[in-house]
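Could you join me in thinking about how sequence relates to backbone shape in a protein? Would you write everything just below, so we can both look at the same thing?
***
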Amino acid sequence: MKRLATVALTALAPVSWGSTYAVATELLPPDRPLFTGVMRALPAGLLLTALSRTLPTGRWWGRAAVLGTLNIGAFFPLLFLSAYRLPGGVAAVLGSVGPLFVVGLAALLLGERARLRTVLAAVAAAFGVSMVVLTAGARLDAVGILAGLVSSASMATGTVMTKRWGRPEGVGPLAMTGWQLTAGGLAIIPVAALVEGAPPALDGNALLGYGYMMLINTGIAYWLWFRGIGQLSATSVTLLGPLSPLTAAVIGWAALGQSLTPVQLLGMAIAFGATVAGQLFAARAAAETQAPAVAAGARSFSSAEKNDRNVSMDLTSGGMRR
């Protein structure tokens, strides 16, 4: 039951990210994706760091910078570059292959066994997403495709390294999230200044949109995401990723008046089913991994009980001899 609650809370992160497109197109200044990246990450990171009242120490300054760059600082610009050079559907499909990167990296760096059923779930989820977002007239661009794949690989590497390094003793996910968002936001600033120039003027809608992006879409969402990485396997967490494009499609239909074809509905069913199956597979894998450890613990406990009985008998015998 605890695992189910953790999965459900972690799933709220990609569900929230699915609202990014609608908020950006309806409320935010156009053609300022890097400025938007800074506004999402840096204020949220500073706020969470202030709330946690904890700063990195020692090697964690460097680790926070690396994780922040992988998960935020490199991921955001590459994702936006891919989105600008490719139709949204193609960019979304490239993003949906992230779980495959995580499966491979988790096997290499974390020792998580790459099970065939998990790989098939990730492939099915990506296929379902492609049915939802791809159109017949989608054009391809080599730079956009490369940027999309590298952005997925960056986030996947950040997810796995977050799991591998864990957290310093006594430091919670709130502080870790704040460190990464701050480092990532700072990394984007020079790129945004070089590419987009001075910040745009902000009206009421923009302030509302950025407020939502900062607090909910980024601050709370990434806190839930990194919290989930700490409690679940890296593969289990990343298999929740396809919920983001599915949420975007639902919001487009419900709030923006976009239509959904039967093929898209079938794709949504496939992607969602694969996501659920991936969580079931991950739970089963966790149980299979824990079973030998529990059995070994039971054997050790039995041996300890036996030793206790022998000691008790020796003490009793000694007392009788005395």
Observations:
- The chain has a mean pLDDT of 86.
- The CA atoms of residues 57 and 168 lie 9 Å apart.
